[in-house]
Design brief:
With 437 residues, this protein is α+β, with helices and mostly antiparallel strands. Helix content is 29%, strand content 27%. It contains 13 helices and 22 strands. It has a 5-stranded parallel beta sheet with strand order 3-2-1-4-5, sandwiched between helices. Strands 12-15-18-22-19 form a 5-stranded antiparallel beta sheet. It has a 4-stranded antiparallel beta sheet with strand order 6-9-7-8, with helices on both faces. Bound molecules: adenosine monophosphate (AMP) and glycine. Glycine (GLY) binds next to loops.
Amino acid sequence: MGYRVLLVGSGGREHALAWKLLQSPLCDHLIAAPGNPGIEALGRGMAEGRVTLSKVGADATAKLVALGKAEKVDLVVCGPEVPLMAGLGDACAEARLRFFGPSRAAAEIEGSKKFAKDLMRKAGIPTAAYGAFSDVAIAEAFIDAQPGNVVVKADGLCAGKGVVVASSREEAKQAVHSMLVDKVFGDAGARLVIEERLVGREVSMMALCDGTRFVLLDSAEDHKAVLDGDRGPNTGGMGAYSPSPLVDKALAESIARTIFAPLVAAMADDGRPFRGLLYGGLMLTKDRGPMVIEWNCRFGDPETQAVLPRMGEDLLPWLLDAASGQLPLRSPDWLPGLAVCVVLAAEGYPGKVRSGDAISGLGGDGQLSGGDGETVVFHAGTKRDRGRLVTNGGRVLGVTANGANLEEARSRAYAGIGRITWPGMHFRKDIGMRGTP
Ligand code: AMP
Ligand code: GLY
């Protein structure tokens, strides 16, 4: 039987999910709501006639459910966190639509940093020491009492912007002030988590979960800062590579045992079993091993664009099994070698960006023409304007290449990028170059 899939979202992560799902011989049709030009173009290329774009937006919960019913889909897959926090999973369950993703209650692992920290403390999961505050004076007293630097985090969702990694007590107190008094993040910053600043290298680990069991995907590393050498302000992610050279089999097993297993068990014990994709942002510390920086309740962006191209088997059965609570107890196959995804950003990103610039270098299928078969262009902030492909957001494209090794993957990705341009385009030249300390 062929499956019909509704994919919610419009970024590079969703393009990667669509690209991978449409490779499945089991996938008859994919409806993207709202999707993007890159996803649409899959229906003119590799997935001829098997893609539809809907105008329904990712935040229109009731309309998404109605669309899923009308299109008789067999599975709904949600990319971004906001619809999950708005209860899309619960609404789909009520309408008897099979859903890959957490319930509103389980999405709280990303939606409230205090909830995540409290649960980790209870479950004995290694994470930075912390306190939660809504009072300026108490928060400042906590900062003064810390032996080292702290990180100040708005409790709620802030589209990745609510975190200040402070290098002095003054800077930390300023952050407290801007969140609690000036309310720069509105309600999301009405409560803060202040935690010890950890030192180490960050890796992203993602797991498919079915409520009680989980299966780790291969590791990845994001590159959050806008400039080479991890300098400049943080972004949503300027590139990723997978696997991380730091995560060998023994470390992955230890991360599964000490971090993911207790978290999945604690969520179930708390009456909010986690189904869907659980993303752990981890710090590999020298003396205390891997520790949790944050949890996300959805696929990482741009990690997904580097991880899925290395998955050596069909993704669709895994999502169906996770959504049905029947995840098999084995690991997926991974292709040898490495994948690198480099994000191409619009002028001004991560600040105020300019949109509407014509993108040159891509064919009508949204890809590089005469490609090498190992390079794929994932669309994030693009749109069609009277037939032309133009920029429409901060992160515009992600160019992913597979290679036998880092050099090969990087040279393919950057060779592809050399053929793409628009006014103000910028990207990091050092994705994947952190080495092995
Ligand atoms: P988040 O939005 O929670 O991913 O945080 C953004 C970035 O802040 C992370 O990717 C880390 O680089 C940094 N960060 C967050 N928490 C800590 C911490 N406890 N110690 C050091 N760095 C942190
Ligand atoms: N790349 C980080 C995230 O998806 O949150």
